[in-house]
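Here is one chain, start to finish.
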Amino acid sequence: MPRLPTGLPYAFSYISAVTGHFFAFTTVFWIVFAVLMLTVALTIFAALSLKRGTFKWIWPLLVLRTLFSILTTVFLMDVLGIFIIPLVCKRLESGERVLKDFPEQECFTGNLAMSILAILGLLVVIPMGMLLNFVFVIPKPECRQKSCSKGLGKIRLGLL
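Its structure:
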């Protein structure tokens, strides 16, 4: 009987792939943070280009749309999880505070830069997810057509 490849779940939930391996988690954390900062940089580039009224290149907009869509739909929960893991601590019997998922790592003091960047990442990703939901998911209860939610969100975004 044919089965799915054993590595397929890791492709869509990379948190389970790095559980218990701090080096792998750190690598994934920095990759996710770099992709998030690339998305922010492309957003700033698009805003400046819109302000000038001209675009020299279109490819940054295509990359921005792709990155924004991927970060806020398919991988939203995993990205949130990656940024939450460095902030969840537990206290050992000895009184020492360690990361819940990586008991060999001290909480905050051992990974201060990662903790600060995790908070920054959450401050960027959560509004991105909220914006996507606002644009495409806000329902209009009195409307009987499926397309009302999408149009309503786009109109409200334009009024901001």
